[in-house]
Amino acid sequence: MIVLFTDFGVADPYVGQMHAVLASVAPQLPVIDLFHAAPNFDIRAAAYLLPAYTREFPVGTIFIGVVDPGVGGPRRPVMLKADERWYVGPDNGLFHIVARRAAASECYVIRWQAPRLSASFHGRDLFAPVAARLARGEMADAEPTTLTTPDGPPWPDDLAAILYIDHYGNAITGIRAAKLASDQTLRMGKVIVKYARTFTEASPGTPFWYENANGLVEIALNRASVAKECHLHTGDAVTVM
Fold it and tell me: How many structural domains are present in the chain?
C-alpha cells in the first residue's frame, strides 16, 4: 500500500499525475490519498501532522511525503524506514519528527536516476517510481545515511501552535493530547479555552479543546467555526496554562 501526504491540493493535476506513475509501475498496488492539504511550503507544520495522520496504517505501508519548497535544489531525496513503515520524500525536515519518535529507524539517500526528472516535480518523477518499486520488493539504488537536522533551534517534541484549520473551522495543533491533563487550559492571544471530552459537553458558543481522533489537541466550537468566531489562524501560538 502506498499513501500520499502532500501540500498539492486537489484542484491541480499533480495528484493525478502521481497516481498515473504509480499505476504504470505497480498497477495492482492500492494507493490512498491521505492528505493533500498540508500547509503550503510549511515543512515544520507538516512534520508534526505526518506522524499523527499515519499512525493507523499497518506495518509495511509506504508513505510518499511531499512538502518540498526546495525541490530541484540541494536537499537530498531519501527513504526512511521507521517502525517498519517506509517514508519516501525530501530530506528537508519533513520526516524529522517521525524519525525522532520511532523506536527504530534507518535512512537511505536515493541514488536511483530517474529517466525524466523535472526540476519542479520530484514527487512524480522520483518519489513515486521509487516508492512503487519499493512496494514491489525492489530496493532502489540507495546508500545508508542520516537525516539532515533542520536549520535553526532544535524542534520541540510537540509544536505549540495551530498547524491546520479543517473545513469545519476546527484548529488542529501540534500538541499531543496525551501530554496534557484535562484541567489544563490553553490560550491563543485573548482566547482562553478549557477541556471538554466531546462536543456535547461544551456549551454552545464556548470554545474548548479536546483530543481529536488523531491524538492531537484540537480547538473547536460546538456546531460552529472556532477559527471564524475566535479569529484563529494557522501559525498562531498556543500557550499551555
Answer: 2
